[in-house]
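Hello again,

I reread your note about wanting to compare the complex against the isolated chains. To keep things tidy I'm splitting this into two emails, and this first one only covers the full assembly. Below are the input lines as submitted, including protein chains and any nucleic acid or small-molecule components. They are followed by the predicted structure of everything together. The single-chain runs will come separately.
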Amino acid sequence: MALKISEIARLAEVSPATVSRVLNGFPNVRKQTRDKVMEVIRRNNYRPSAIAHSLKAKQTDTICLMLPNIQNMAYAPITKGVEDVARERGYTVILCNTNSDEETEKQYFDKMKSRMVDGFVITSAMPNHQNIFELVAEETPVVLCSRYYPEDVGKIEICSINNRDASYALISEMIAHGYRRIAIALGNEEIFYTTERMRGYMDALRDAGLEFDERLVMHFEKENRDFYRKTLELIDSGLDFDSIFCTSDTKAIYAMRALYERGLKVPQDIGVFGFDNIDISDSVTPPLTTVSQSPYLEGRLAGQCLIEQIEYKRKNGVLPPPRFHEIKPELIIRQSSK
Amino acid sequence: MALKISEIARLAEVSPATVSRVLNGFPNVRKQTRDKVMEVIRRNNYRPSAIAHSLKAKQTDTICLMLPNIQNMAYAPITKGVEDVARERGYTVILCNTNSDEETEKQYFDKMKSRMVDGFVITSAMPNHQNIFELVAEETPVVLCSRYYPEDVGKIEICSINNRDASYALISEMIAHGYRRIAIALGNEEIFYTTERMRGYMDALRDAGLEFDERLVMHFEKENRDFYRKTLELIDSGLDFDSIFCTSDTKAIYAMRALYERGLKVPQDIGVFGFDNIDISDSVTPPLTTVSQSPYLEGRLAGQCLIEQIEYKRKNGVLPPPRFHEIKPELIIRQSSK
DNA sequence: ATGAAAGCGCTAACAG
DNA sequence: CTGTTAGCGCTTTCAT
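Full-complex prediction:
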């Protein structure tokens, strides 16, 4: 159905090589020839086969975006950012949801390798990601976006905020607002940013001379939704607390649901602080005090860095030294705190 | 770097053809030969090139998912559904955000054609989608998911609820709950489902003997966020209304924000009804009365139907007759209505 | 049951 | 400036 370069060549009465030259904008083609070829291309609505090109060029102009689950609202803006940059630069994005499942992730890595994607933006790095180190060892361009681990620094390119500092800043600010007994709803503690956010919280308490109370810690079980129940339990326990720091806005929404359910008003009775500034954080009731890592821009940056790696490697045959891009977080004080 | 079939052949002391036969599970290979080849493959961690395969096979095992914007929460579960099915069936998903922009969409269609994707799931169909009809005319597998237009029926495969009926059911139910003056927050009226939801609303009013008041209609401008302001304006206009029907949950969240801002309680003072049942609809304050089209399952269905089309075409050379898959919506009554 | 050879559509030497 | 040729890695007749 779709015609090929040799047919265009025949119709334009030139060789396939010349058509290829025209297609790729080589300068060494007579204007007259070029025009004729272009005309034939246009008239026949010819579209070169990206597959054949990829086979020859050993590059696919395709990048893979791996994330735990696109249904988690925190990943939507990252995804959009990566895709926007990719489109602008002529790349295509393959989306992979790992469901935080090692088997699925492994399958995807295999498939992506055989599809020869040019690089990976990974937001789903698990604590032991031997697979990712292997990728880099094979000189595959990789950028870790928002999720990384201490051992990655200097070995893999990273785009992230400093979670400890962001958390520290938020909690210090809330302490300045008068909060004293701050409960915390933690994410999966295998993930570095969770423990970093926890560390920021503890450091802020300590530096303010406040006591850390283990009983005010709500640990992650299986899903964010569980924090609805966990918050109810915390309330019903009768423990004294004046606020809840949730390590993601999604958790904060569930926590607020529970507070509301028990007739506790936010922020009058209990303050709630989130993390992420997801799209609706400014429009839930009450709007959330949170910290933003500008995930859309983070995604764009990750995409950009990946493409730079890809192009560097194309030119030099090896990856550039991995950089750490620290993104400046932004404190956003809204009505869920007083 | 990556080794190829001919090297495996050499190592296994057979021909490339035999390796290919083993790889593709052909029966006409001696067990002894097969075992030897498998062993060499395993030992060398050989991965066939999907690109070379695609070039030869003229199929890429890749599908394209087009949507307006992944940041719109309504699309996340559809995306997850499509991707889950694709993965299960051995396909890969390319994600395309059109931003509801014709130029971007056109670019993507071109790129996807030259990448020879095997088919499209499209949730971003614009009112005049000549391009999509052309796709089908070229025997490209296509499924419209959740967004379609009357002229598509019988020409393109569709997975969707009946929006008019779903809306009618919701509004009738709310009228039965005692609501009489129901304002409406409309989406983009160029999109069929918006006008269908509007029609359901009007029919329900009419059948209940209620008067339709044009002044209670809030029209879409540029983004959902605008409904925060529009709702404030509606309140401040002093018009009498006892509830707002929002044609998406996202709009409902913005509307509730405005009501709260003006000291109006939901549902005590004003009822709010949404549409979509996005992930957090059950956890915002108050939880939203809405109607669900089970978007995750809708995405799965769309993916499944697309793959069936692809495989049918592979066998028969042409597309199967396009079907209409009507999804049964579910009314969900929560605390945003009384 | 296995191998030799041609070809998918494009590009890159090399030659002229 | 343009054409010829070989080859990217895999599959698929056609022989044997």
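For quick reference: The CA atoms of residues 168 and 200 of chain B lie 4 Å apart.

B.
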